Structure formats: C-alpha cells, structure tokens
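User: My collaborator sent over this chain with a note saying "see what the structure looks like." That's all I know about it. Can you take a look?
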Amino acid sequence: MTLDHRKAKELIGGLLKEISSTKHWSLIFANVDKANTVSRKSGDFESVDCETAIGRLKDICSVHIDKNQFEHLDKLRKLPNVAVHFA
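Assistant: Without extra context I'll predict from the sequence alone. Here is the result:
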C-alpha cells in the first residue's frame, strides 16, 4: 500500500487536530474567535493548518515537542509541497 502525498498531509493534519481537540475543541478552528458549537457539529468551518496546530499545542496546551520531533513533523508536513511543486 502506498500513501500519496495529499493523503500523508491529511493524515498529519488529522492527527494534529485530534490531539488539539483533546485539549479543547475550539483549537481545531483556524480562527478560534469564530469557534462555536453549531459550526463544530456541522463541520462548517475552516480548520487549523498544521503549522498553527503545532504552535497551539506548544504554546497554549504546553505539549512538549522537542526540536527533533518538530523537525520530523515539519519534514512530513512539507513533503506534499515538494511533490506538487517539483514533480
């Protein structure tokens, strides 16, 4: 089974959003000021991007992500962009 680059990015984003939502559901919104339960239940909102999710986990939720872990996440996050722009 192969995992294409778009699916890999979706998987990483999904994992980060799931971790964020365990801390507080509003953290999965791109703009937490627009977070509300109606939008959350309907799925009608723009979700947080990977870079912002990592920042929120570190800065708001006090999740420790060491430099090595961050570099791995960042490489995985950028992988789809390399394929799209240079393939």
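A starting point for your reply to your collaborator: The chain has one domain: 5-86.
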